[in-house]
Design brief:
two-stranded antiparallel ribbon, binds the ligand CC(C)CCC[C@@H](C)[C@H]1CC=C2C3=C(CC[C@@]21C)[C@@]1(C)CC[C@H](O)C(C)(C)[C@@H]1CC3, oxidoreductase, about 425 residues, 6 strands, lipid biosynthesis, globular, about 60% helix, binds NADPH dihydro-nicotinamide-adenine-dinucleotide phosphate, cholesterol biosynthesis, mainly alpha
């Protein structure tokens, strides 16, 4: 269907050229990281020691395993949910409904994996399959994004996202045209954002821990910390699953290659980079340092969770006693903006907490290599860019009230610094 007339959102990521470059660069970066983590020098910058042939990338066993994983997560998504939540109001004033059973999917997956392992499933063999698994995940992301692009051609105009209707096929394929592509109750974006990739990430971490125990007798303290911190992060995301319904990805961004690849390939295979690194590059870690890193993670988590929960509670019910006493600014839309509490400290306190946790995930890997700090570097860039996008949208939405908020809360992410 033709895109709507009228003002269009400004092009992001350098427009069609930037999008075309990212289509190649993102998968290339992911494979570079996978190869670097298993190589001796583990260099973040510079070419990998050797390039894999097709036989190292393509494996029918990996394809089967990958399809079984997607099938399992889809089946768990379709199980009866403890709650069905309503999303934000859409342009046509309707609200979509979403099953809240992500945490249940995580627990059931853990039980199934536990059963499998006790029946002889070799979890420690998974790290050897990361390359072909990442390859089929990338192929799936391309094919799936093509399907999403075609599906959007026949979707009603009201179902399209503001950012993905430039009319340029490469740009729209990358950013995603349809806001909430679904087949019946199955919401592709919501499913992909929280299930196969996020749960896959902790499963890969666990497999790396098991492999380390096989190789060295027991997992290292550093490996335990990385596994524990990231499991907490994923468990928290699934426990607070409903909160994702107010994030930018669900309310504003279309579902195209960027999110499809990000969700199902980038997250599991690059977010597990620290554990991949530790398997081949063991790092000594004493108890005092480990305790300090735990404290950093706890501070980050406290800020991240406090800020996200405060905003969610406020958005759901501004007269909830937990947020009713906070200072606010009224906006012309009828919605208010918090100007005290976490959201009075900086304009994105949740990003600050997330970044502090990112640092804690890298520190167990020591300071001899830059590679395990990739997540921290990438994530800083992602959040700075995301913050700028969000500010633009908020200024458009709230106008003068947003300017007043920026005046009262001048720092974006880090108090007195940025
Ligand atoms: N690990 C990862 O790879 C990633 C993690 N994240 C994490 O996801 C979480 C969600 O991030 P994201 O969706 O980017 O953005 P936020 O959750 O920060 O949401 C931004 C929205 O919050 C509302 N808002 C902003 N300021 C205020 C205020 N003062 N009072 C009330 N509402 C306000 C506005 O929406 P409105 O007014 O319409 O409600 C704004 O558009 C973050 O914790 C982030 O760190 C994000 C990206 C990647
Ligand atoms: C591949 C590209 C460079 C960028 C892709 C970005 C995506 C990987 C991220 C965009 C927003 C995300 C969120 C989470 C994971 C990463 C992606 C998909 C999130 C689910 C992680 C867990 C958090 O608790 C959260 C708040 C639920 C996150 C929501 C945003």
């Amino acid at each position: 269907m033709a895109p709507p007339e009228g003002p269009r959102a400004p092009l992001e990521f350098g427009g069609p050229l930037g999008a075309a470059a990212l289509l190649l660069l993102l998968p290339a970066t992911m494979f570079h990281l996978l190869l670097a983590a298993r190589s001796g020098p583990a260099r973040l910058l510079g070419p990998p020691a050797s390039l894999p042939g097709l036989e190292a990338l393509w494996s029918p066993r990996a394809l089967l395993l990958w399809l079984a994983w997607l099938g399992l997560q889809a089946a768990l998504y379709l199980l009866p949910a403890r709650k069905v939540a309503e999303g934000q109001e859409l342009e046509d004033k309707s609200r979509l409904r979403y099953p809240i059973n992500g945490f249940q999917a995580l627990v059931l997956t853990a039980l199934l994996v536990g059963l499998g392992v006790s029946a002889g499933l070799p979890l420690g063999a998974l790290p050897e399959m990361l390359l072909p698994l990442a390859f089929v995940a990338t192929l799936t992301a391309f094919i799936f994004s093509l399907f999403l692009y075609m599906k959007a051609q026949v979707a009603p105009v009201s179902a399209l996202a503001p950012g993905g209707i430039s009319g340029n096929p490469i740009y729209d394929f990358f950013l995603g045209r349809e806001l909430n592509p679904r087949i019946c109750f199955f919401d592709f974006k919501y499913f992909c954002e929280l299930r196969p990739g996020l749960i896959g990430w902790v499963l890969i971490n666990l497999a790396l821990l098991v492999k380390e125990a096989e190789l060295r007798g027991s997992p290292s303290l550093a490996m335990w910390l990385v596994n524990g911190f990231q499991l907490l992060y994923v468990g928290d995301a699934l426990w607070h699953e409903e909160a994702i319904l107010t994030t930018m990805d669900i309310t504003h961004d279309g579902f195209g290659f960027m999110l499809a690849f990000g969700d199902i390939a980038w997250v599991p295979f690059t977010y597990s980079l620290q554990a991949q690194f530790l398997l081949r590059h063991p790092q000594p870690l004493g108890l005092p340092m480990a305790s300090a890193i735990c404290l950093i993670n706890a501070i980050g988590y406290y800020i991240f969770r406090g800020a996200n929960s405060q905003k969610n509670t406020f958005r759901k019910n501004p007269s909830d006693p937990r947020v009713a006493g906070l200072e606010t600014i009224s906006t012309a839309t009828g919605r208010k903006l918090l100007v005290s509490g976490w959201w009075g400290m900086v304009r994105h306190p949740n990003y600050l907490g997330d970044l502090i946790m990112a640092l804690a995930w890298s520190l167990p890997c020591g300071v001899s290599h830059l590679l395990p700090y990739f997540y921290l570097l990438y994530f800083t860039a992602l959040l700075v860019h995301r913050e700028a996008r969000d500010e633009r949208q908020c200024l458009q939405k709230y106008g003068l009230a947003w300017q007043e908020y920026c005046r009262r809360v001048p720092y974006r992410i880090v108090p007195y610094i940025y």
